[in-house]
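INFO batch 0412 | record 1 of 1 | parsing
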Amino acid sequence: MKESNQHYFYIPQIKKRNQKAAIFKGFTILAIVFSISFLIFFLVDIVRAGYPAFTQTYIKIEVKITPEVVENPYGAVNGKQLKIISRAWLRDLPKQIQANPSWMNTTQAFLALANSEVDQYMKGKESRTSERDRAYVDELKNQGKVELKFNAPFLLSGDSKIPENSGIYSAIIGSLMTMLVTIAIAFPIGVMTAIYLEEFAPENKLTHIIEVKINNLAAIPSILFGLLGLSIFINFFGVPRSSPLVGGMTLALMSLPVIIVSSKAALKSVPASIRQAGFG
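INFO prediction complete | emitting tokens
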């Protein structure tokens, strides 16, 4: 018989348990590696598909600045250029002229924003640009009049019906305002409620029911809070639909149970000695 079998504390089942634990650990590590690999793959794919949005096609053109151009900016370019240049840039041209009155009755060179279809064509994506317009764009490209530059309108513009002129600026500002409203409402109410329930509320049936309801609210799907905000804040109180106030108040209602439960758990974890020392 082996020496290990003669040991008083030797347990034959431990070896099998260790083997099973090693197999389970291997599967766990494999699952983690598999998950991280998929995450990296998705992140790389998102970056690969999204980075062209940070560049935009611009076309060098020369415009004769006249009072007629201020009145009708679409007449500043010829028919071929009109089909490849963004309407947003042409609409903004009179503002540029008014800001620079010395341009009047002179010929100025501009980098005009191309429309979205030309931009897609220049990036090798699917485009509805006609063959004639593609040939004209290729001709301008060979002449060095087509450039890909950083897409500033994407970061500095808001919503727009014109694709090449739309951006995320209004979405960022709206999100920040919504979060400010949420924090301003949910944080003080949630923390004060948790302090009251943990430190001052009497131990009775009503307090117990309130705590149970708060815990239940923390498990409600967010879609139900959205429907609640729609029916109460918009339909009943008539708050404007696109206002960050509505989203902030709805998110505050959704966040309150989590803040209350977390704050109560944090207060409960404080030792009694430290809590009493706070009284001086």
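INFO post-check: The two ends are 69 Å apart (CA to CA).
INFO record closed
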